[in-house]
Write a structure and sequence with these properties.
The chain starts with a helix and ends in a 9-residue tail after the last helix. The protein has one domain. The protein is built from 13 helices and nine strands. By secondary structure, it is of the alpha/beta class. Helix 2 packs across helix 4 and helix 7 packs antiparallel against helix 10.
């Protein structure tokens, strides 16, 4: 029964996965081109890393640094730090270390102003995004961002809409969460149909019943998430969307305020799907240029070697010793006639 439920949920994995790139859940009340090469659309904020044999190694998110072209502002920089809201524990450990370096770390969370997130994330809310992320954590063997990132640090600055602002803007644009989710679902299903050579539902069923289920499912979902541009296009209209464009505008209002207050080293920690639009706005509205681009592994996509039990190890060792003893024994000598 459990596997059937997982199958039903993951059939729409493209839509489910992208939710973890776009919005962080509100807790209950308390190879990329080098900088300068190509157009803005060439800058990637998520990739699938593969080894020399083409096998999947990891799902990576980007850290991109921008500096001013004004010599008077030398030493001031902004870094876009891509997020997936469920990831490996080691991913969030690396992020926590990275965040220590900033004068201010701007973070996303649709929540009332001055909301304080306790260590461990507090209690989970019961909204649909929370339910989806709970399912992803369980099925993929990953961790929650809100549980692993330490939001109690003094340099953390809330840079997102309040629930009231978010709701009013969605009404203004005649949007709803479910209409956006249905667009994501339709885009995910179209993508799956276009990748039918990968096996579709049969591949999903095979992954669900495999011994390394977590890794197989992560690989399938990561491949869905790789086409981030197509998913953004499914959400954004000619005037943008609340869930991406309007929240980005809010974040960059906070960035401008922090820069004006004298902060020189600033990070913006937002879902990876937000960052292509932020990249363009940093260049066009802030006069910044991309000078550095690096990757952080968020999901480990490598199949784990089967571990031997101590009993199996002993048997293997005994067999190896017996074979060595047999090879070392002198050949029998025939008696003389």
């Amino acid at each position: 029964m459990k596997n059937l439920w997982l199958f039903a949920c993951l059939t729409f994995s493209g839509a489910v996965a992208m939710v973890s790139l776009i919005t962080a859940d509100e807790p209950s009340a308390p190879p990329v081109k080098r900088p300068g090469e190509g157009e803005a659309s060439d800058v990637k904020f998520m990739r699938l890393a593969r080894d020399n044999q083409g096998k999947l190694v990891s799902l990576d998110t980007a850290v991109a640094r921008y500096e001013s072209t004004d010599p008077a502002k030398k030493g001031t920089y902004v870094e876009l730090v891509g997020a997936v809201h469920v990831g490996e524990r080691t991913y969030y450990e690396a992020l926590n270390a990275q965040f220590e370096k900033y004068d201010a770390l701007l973070y996303e969370l649709v929540a009332p102003p001055n909301t304080k997130i306790p260590k461990g994330g507090g209690e989970r809310s019961g909204n649909p995004v929370s339910a989806i992320q709970t399912g992803l954590k369980s099925v993929l063997g990953l961790e929650f961002q809100l549980e692993q990132v330490d939001y109690t640090k003094k340099n953390f600055v809330h840079a997102d809409m309040s629930p009231t602002e978010f709701s009013e803007k969605m009404k203004e644009k005649n949007e709803s969460f479910w209409t956006l989710f249905m667009r994501l679902m339709a885009q995910g299903m179209a993508q799956q149909a276009g990748n039918s050579e990968r096996g579709g539902d049969l591949a999903l069923l095979t992954a669900l019943f495999s011994k390394d289920r977590e890794v197989r499912l992560k690989q399938m979902m990561a491949e869905q998430m790789e086409n981030m541009e197509g998913t953004i296009a499914a959400i954004e209209g000619p005037d943008g969307s609340t869930i991406l464009t309007e929240r980005n505008k809010k974040a960059l209002e906070v960035l401008r305020r922090e820069l004006q207050s004298g902060k020189r080293e600033i990070g913006i920690f937002y879902g990876a799907a937000h960052l292509p639009d932020m990249h363009k706005r940093l260049e066009n509205e802030f006069g910044l240029r991309l000078v550095e681009h690096r990757w952080l592994p968020a999901w480990n996509l490598q199949a784990q070697e089967t571990k031997r039990t101590p009993r199996k190890k002993r048997k293997a060792k005994q067999a190896e010793q017996a074979e060595q003893a047999e090879q070392a024994s002198p050949a029998p000598v025939e008696p003389s006639p």
